[in-house]
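Hi support team,

I've been running sequence recovery on a batch of backbones for a student project. Most finish fine, but this one hangs at about 90% for roughly twenty minutes before it completes. I'm not sure whether the input is malformed or the queue is just slow. I've pasted the structure tokens below so you can try to reproduce it. Let me know if you need the job ID as well.

Thanks,
M.K.
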């Protein structure tokens, strides 16, 4: 249509050009008035769509901040907001892994404390029992036997205590490490 009007305008005389301008200008103004609301409507629709995406991301971040690390933010499309939502979701995935790892570590620590407490309680119970026996024993051979048992149990308790101390140092990262080559 533009090419046709241009050809007519270029090949026509002053009268044709004047008629085209007189008719074309009001038509151009009418089309502009018709297109303006459509253009504004399209711009408002795009803006609403982007604001909705932003609000979805904002709500998702609030839920994650409040502790709902299972929440996943979904934004339609593949623009900047979709990339931002995907990045936040990957942060959430990393956070889930870290929380799971920390929970596992806490369970292992609890099991270790339970096992060590049991292992330490056994020699202590023997100490108490054999000390009570020693208090009332008159036979020197029995006394010697009881002292031998106490000696064994005290060495076992020392080994357990040293192992517990080493485990605590290792878990806190305060244990010195020296790398050496060995011949397997």
């Amino acid at each position: 249509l533009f090419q046709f009007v241009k050809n007519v305008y270029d090949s026509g005389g002053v009268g044709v050009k004047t008629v085209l301008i007189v008719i074309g200008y009001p038509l151009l103004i009418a089309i502009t008035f018709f297109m303006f609301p459509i253009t504004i409507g399209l711009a408002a629709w795009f803006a609403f769509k982007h604001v909705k995406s932003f609000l979805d991301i904002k709500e998702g971040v609030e839920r994650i901040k409040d502790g709902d690390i299972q929440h996943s933010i979904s934004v339609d499309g593949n623009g900047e907001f979709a990339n931002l939502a995907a990045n936040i979701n990957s942060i959430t995935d990393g956070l889930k892994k870290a929380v799971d790892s920390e929970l596992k570590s806490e369970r292992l620590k609890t099991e270790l404390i339970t096992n060590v407490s049991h292992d330490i309680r056994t020699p202590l119970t023997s100490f108490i029992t054999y000390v009570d026996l020693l208090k009332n024993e008159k036979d020197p051979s029995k006394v010697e036997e009881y002292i031998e048992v106490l000696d064994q149990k005290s060495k076992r308790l020392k080994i357990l205590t040293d192992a517990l101390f080493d485990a605590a140092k290792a878990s806190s990262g305060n244990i010195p490490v020296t790398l050496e080559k060995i011949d397997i």
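--
Follow-up from support: It reproduced on our side and the slowdown came from queue contention, not your input. The mean pLDDT is 84. No action needed from you.
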